[in-house]
Amino acid sequence: MVETPRARTRTADPAPATALFSERVRDCFSGAANQYEGGARIQRAIAWRLGHLCRPLAIGPGPKADLGAGTGLLARSIVLHRPDLNLLRLDNCQALLEQEPPQAGASSRLLWDLNLGLPAQLAGASLLASSFALQWLEQPRLQLDQWASQLARGGWLVLAVPCSASFEQWRQAAGRARVPFTGLALPAASELIEAVECQLQVVRCQRLRFSRRRPQALAFLRELKAIGAQASPTGQLSRTELRRLQTHWTPNPPKCPLEWEVLLLLARKP
């Protein structure tokens, strides 16, 4: 499948639009914070996989952080596999940061909008980990460049992010129904890989595929909303548009699944 660059309509002054969308993302996740972990099944599976990949890594001194940590799924998985590590959890949503289970132990948290880049205390980081967060930023590739530049020599980047080859069934259904595709404009995997390779040595690179067989449109959109993942610059569909999308959702052929493409990267700074 050919990947296309991430496109976004921009205003003459992009800063206010960025701030507004960042606030929308934060508000959506805040409203779903209590039920996030119950519905974030793919995110949980990916967090466990990334934590397992961290087990054998030689991680030196220096700051360590989970970027866009949310409820701490990734940070907890890393610490489960590497009890010697203590990660700073960064997120723009206070309600998610407060969801960490008591049995997970105390961890440092910082309320921070990653659209602003990384805070100064992460300069010379020995580990920057992030799962299902980069796609919510206004300029994913630019932020990824900065993350890589903040690593110390020998520092590790551990990353998972859904990419633009996801949700083709949804896109096709929206086209047939003649309604806007309201999914997030996900970054192209090839662009992110290229950005990482400019500064880091890639140790592991995978494009994982997750699929669900024929979920109904309205049920699927409700699942996104239930974990706070419904924010989109495109806005929401009207009831009439939702009914049209539902009518045209059944794929052709009928067994075509709804798919996620998730880029998994493990890279080290030489």
Briefly say what this structure is.
37% of the residues lie in helices and 20% in strands. The chain is an alpha/beta fold.
CATH hierarchy, class of the domain at 16-164 and 185-213 and 263-268: Alpha Beta
Q: What is the helix fraction of residues, given as a range?
A: 25-40%
How many strands? 7
Roughly what is the average pLDDT, rounded to an integer? 88
**Terminal CA distance:** 32 Å
Low-confidence stretches: 1-16
Q: Shape from CA axes?
A: globular
CATH topology group of the domain at 16-164 and 185-213 and 263-268: Rossmann fold
Rg from Cα: 18 Å
Structural class comes to alpha/beta
Strand content: 15-25%
CATH architecture grouping of the domain at 16-164 and 185-213 and 263-268: 3-Layer(aba) Sandwich
- What does the oligomeric state look like here? single chain
- Summarize the main sheet: 7 strands, mixed
Helices, by number, come to: 10
The main sheet orders its strands as 3-2-1-4-5-7-6
CATH superfamily of the domain at 16-164 and 185-213 and 263-268: Vaccinia Virus protein VP39
H and E order: HHHEHEHEEHEHHEHHE
